[in-house]
Amino acid sequence: MTRYLYEGGAVVSQAGVPLVSASATVYSLRTGGSIVTDILSTGGTPLAGVVTTDAYGQVLFQGPDSTATTYWLQFASGPRWPVSVATAPGDEDAAASVKTTATPKAAIHYGNLETQAVATSLDSIVVPKYASSAARDTANPTPTVGDLHTRSDKRGNLFVRDTTGTARWRDAGTVIVADTSDRTAQFPAPQNGDACYQVDIAAQVRYHSPSSSWVVTTGPRAGLKVASAAALATANPTPADGDRAYRTDIHADVVYNSARSKYDPYRTLIEEKVISSSVASVSFASIPQDFRHLSLEIVTLTSVSAGSDFILVTLNSDTGTNYSTLVMYAYSSPGTFAKAGSNAEPYVVIAPVGTGQASAVCKVLDYASTSSWKGCHAQGVHSSGTTTTHGMSTTSGMWKSTSAVTSLQVKALGNMTAGRLLLYGER
Q1: I need a labelling partner for 154 at 20 to 30 A (CA). Which of 95, 218, 342, 399 fits?
Q2: Domain containing 237: what range?
């Protein structure tokens, strides 16, 4: 009696990531039918009609004795999927087994659509299957360009002989690996151009022999997600200008800037503060150093009468007289214009504000620099709460320190009684 190996292809999510440990019931028909209970795992364990995807999203099992019919997989939701015979068990274990008849399309393992297209076009050609590269080299010690084979140790992908640089066997399919360790196991001696899909970084990687490293070829350009700058450096050790990724630690998209030799984030919200009761100040601490500039957006009220209060900012809790400020402001009533300046203040003035509505935007430029003073530029508008008194202001200030800005404090001469403050990082 003979049991045949069934293979259902890779089960992936909508994002294209293989689904691991997903259970499916094996049915005899596409609709209706009965559960096929006489099935075994590849190791011979009875499965009672239920199969589970492996670490690569694949479904593999042995069918009933002497049966090669198509069965159907029913997952938790959605339609049933067909699953067909891949190969007779034991074939892939023969050290140098070579098929002596044409390989029908249905018997070839399709790693992807590219492989399927090759298999279909070469349906009349014999495609041998080997257990390892050593078995292949024993059976075919002098290969010629165009020779094909599949290997069970490479999860059945199709290999073709080419002459790119030094004559070599090239993987014509897509190997799926779980992580770097699994990739090393699958490619113990990688050659230039070897490629695989790495699940833990959700990216296609290719071996680059000049740098002796694996390089992300589709990932930063297609939304590579990493946990930190260190993880990004591991995933893409030789970035090119324009490579992109998403960092979950700063919740930001980043793009590689070759001129700065680093990844720069786009504009992203660092933190939001909501004022729901009277407070003397609001602080932003542990500001990430991954951006080029900071943008502070303020909408607030204060407890001081109209036109007599100001929004003030200090950096790194520095309350010494290390700031200079120049403010130009105007009021619609009584139609006045004024300017005020100081070269030694314990804060930077952002905008006038009163008991009516007030809004301001403040930019802190090159805030992460450790070699230059920090320039601050702001614009603000405010109203006394009436229809007759309105004001606007334009401010330039300087924090005379070369320290990187890691915290920022906002206050007024009186208390802030309501409002919202948002701190953004920008490229």
Answers
A1: 218
A2: 194-264
